[in-house]
Amino acid sequence: MPRRVSLPAADDLFRPTVSERRAEEEAADAAAKPVHAVPDRPQRRRPASRGAGDAGEAGEAGESGQGSERKPSGRVRHDEKMTVYVTSDELLDLEHARLSLRRTHGLAVDRGRLVREAVAMVLADYEAHGEDSALVRRLTPE
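RESULT FIELD:
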């Protein structure tokens, strides 16, 4: 029977190592600043290709009729998937940014959301500035 290994969470791996007095000060600051999850912006839905009409929308409210009272989880379903390989340093930088956003700004975001926002920012810069964009500058050999 295979054994599953229990690994520490990212918060345990990347916890700061500071003095006890400073840790108490940071804990007091963290208690003053609440952490809240930042949901993805809802994507515009594509019209159904099979002509379902309003049947799909009626089913979304819930069978029990309590659809308007239900609070959204903040998660948005993504229909497409892409795998990106990063170096261990890039992954550590991404995790550090995620934890820093949580600690400093009280924003609880996952790595996927962080990557989607970064991609959106780079593409918007490319659309606005074209050849002068940061993307073109970084990809152009010197």
